[in-house]
Design brief:
Layout lengths: L13 H4 L4 H4 L3 H14 L11 H20 L4 H16 L8 H11 L5 H8 L3 H17 L2 E2 L9 H13 L1 E3 H11 L18 E3 L6 E2 L3 H7 L4 H8 L3 H20 L5 E4 L2 E2 L4 E2 L3 E4 L4 E7 L5 H5 L6 H24 L13 E7 L7 H19 L4 H5 L3 E4 H13 L2 H8 L9 H8 L3 H5 L6 H7 L8
Helix pairs in contact: 3-4, 3-10, 6-13, 13-18, 15-16, 18-19
Length: 468
């Protein structure tokens, strides 16, 4: 599904055999993930009915879908929580609609290969960032052939890399019994049933007792664990990692602007001055129409914030952290507009503040913006900021993937036209990617290839895995 490959014949239902889309055939990534979780939880180790045909698999996924609907129907506060429900559906389903491309892999590689981060990767995993991403590509190739990892490349690799590869395999694998125990501990039999944490997210490789005989029930989760999931390994291993990866993300955003906006955008990086030291916004991106004040935030959402419905939803607390980022951005914007920046002065052209996150927050709808706006008001009061700034310079929040699309659209039109339209009453609460797809077709897909060539350096680079 993620690599646009047809299913084996035995797993195709009639709509798929007739050439209909996965959507029309009822084949959804999030249902496959839930199916894997339920098989680990309820499947028999030996005997029992096989689950290797379309009839059995689609029947089980249909039951999962109906059970999810039933749990929502029995939720007593569903009328109050319906808007929050839409947000968590986005967190559950939207990522499956965005396969891991070379451009996305290159983005992660640039982060982990940054001079501040690369040494931490090597210290923790015993291999360079380049070798780690070569391993990801080798795993992906094997996963396209079979549901097991055979490590066919390992006998030809240098002896010194074999132990780190096996150590990484042990780190992200567990026995089916261990995963079942972990699933029982995290399972929730209420409105959160279909959204509770899936241990496969932490341990995507499964074995039945022999750690060298590994199955991968959901290959995209394996690739996610070896890209996004590395954050948790590294943040536990080195207290300096949080600051280092933040700097790496800021650097990546600058490289994106340079690549997309060559000969069109003027880019000013963060500047420090004065005693005590003062700092500007991370990046100022300008063209002939306006300036973008860009604050880069790697901050991520924990699983509870993405999925849990409760009297005090964790998502609201997470939005509070984002409101703090917005307040920080306006504090520095206020100083800049008063002429306090040494490297930029107001010139009468519009200024648009924007917070760019590395991870997807799926910023859309009344639940998100109602809470964010209220919490931003609190931030303004705490910081003593003029609320008139919000009307003169309304803020925007988007992910790095959306920001790349925004820059691409701005290159074709201009910054002021694109951002002003997005921040209008008609589009402010829309998802940025939806707005761009509707108003600037092609901007997102073109942006996906910004660093498509970034993986060439990985493939062609030195490696103990391929003896180059």
């Amino acid at each position: 599904m993620q690599f646009d490959q047809p299913l084996p014949e035995q797993l195709k239902n009639n709509p798929l055999r007739l050439g209909q889309s996965n959507l029309k055939a009822g084949l959804h990534g999030h249902l496959v993930e839930l199916l894997a979780r339920e098989v680990i939880l309820n499947g028999q180790s030996r005997g029992g009915k096989p689950l290797n045909t379309a009839d059995a698999a689609f029947k089980a996924m249909g039951m999962i879908h109906r059970l999810d609907d039933k749990s929502w129907g029995l939720h007593g506060s569903r009328s109050d929580d319906i808007i929050l429900q839409l947000s968590r559906i986005a967190f559950q389903q939207f990522p499956w609609q965005s396969p891991l491309t070379n451009g996305v892999l290159a983005r992660y590689h640039m982060l982990y290969a940054h001079p501040l981060v690369g040494p931490m990767v090597e210290a923790e995993f015993g291999m360079s960032t380049g070798e780690l991403f070569q391993l990801i590509l080798l795993f992906a190739e094997e996963m396209l052939q079979r549901p097991t990892l055979a490590f066919e490349f390992l006998p030809a690799a240098e002896q010194s890399i074999r132990a780190p590869v096996l150590a990484l395999s042990d780190r992200i694998s567990r026995s089916s019994d261990d995963l079942r125990t972990a699933t029982v501990e995290r399972q929730s039999y209420d409105v959160n049933w279909a959204y509770s944490f899936n241990p496969l997210r932490a341990f995507p490789l499964v074995h039945a007792g022999n750690p060298r005989s590994l199955m991968c029930p959901a290959p995209p989760i394996l690739l996610q664990r070896l890209t996004d999931g590395l954050y948790f390994d590294l943040i536990r291993a080195d207290r300096r990692f949080g600051s280092a990866i933040g700097k790496a993300f800021e650097h990546y955003v600058g490289k994106v602007v340079e690549r997309i906006g060559v000969d069109v955008f003027n880019l000013r990086e963060e500047t420090c001055w004065g005693k005590p030291e003062r700092r500007s916004v991370d990046w100022i991106v300008s063209d002939n129409s306006a300036s973008l004040f860009v604050e880069c935030k790697l901050g991520r959402l924990d699983i509870a914030s993405q999925t849990e419905i409760s009297p005090e939803p964790p998502f609201v607390a997470a939005i509070g952290r984002l409101a703090g980022n917005v307040g920080q951005l306006y504090a520095t914007l206020s100083e800049a507009l008063a002429g306090g920046y040494p490297h930029w002065k107001p010139d009468g052209r519009p200024v648009h503040p924007i917070v760019v996150t590395f991870h997807e927050w799926f910023c859309f709808g009344p639940f998100f913006y109602k809470h964010l706006d209220e919490l931003v008001d609190t931030e303004f009061e705490k910081r003593g900021l003029d609320r008139a700034l919000l009307k003169r310079h309304p803020y925007c929040v988007c992910s790095i993937a959306e920001f790349e699309g925004l820059l691409t659209a701005g290159r074709g039109a201009n910054i002021d036209i694109v951002v002003s339209e997005k921040m209008s009453a008609a589009h402010r609460q829309s998802l940025m990617r939806g707005f761009l797809a509707d108003r600037y077709p092609g901007s997102l897909s073109n942006a996906m290839g910004t660093f498509e060539d970034g993986m060439d350096l990985v493939i062609e680079g030195p490696s103990r895995l391929t003896r180059r």
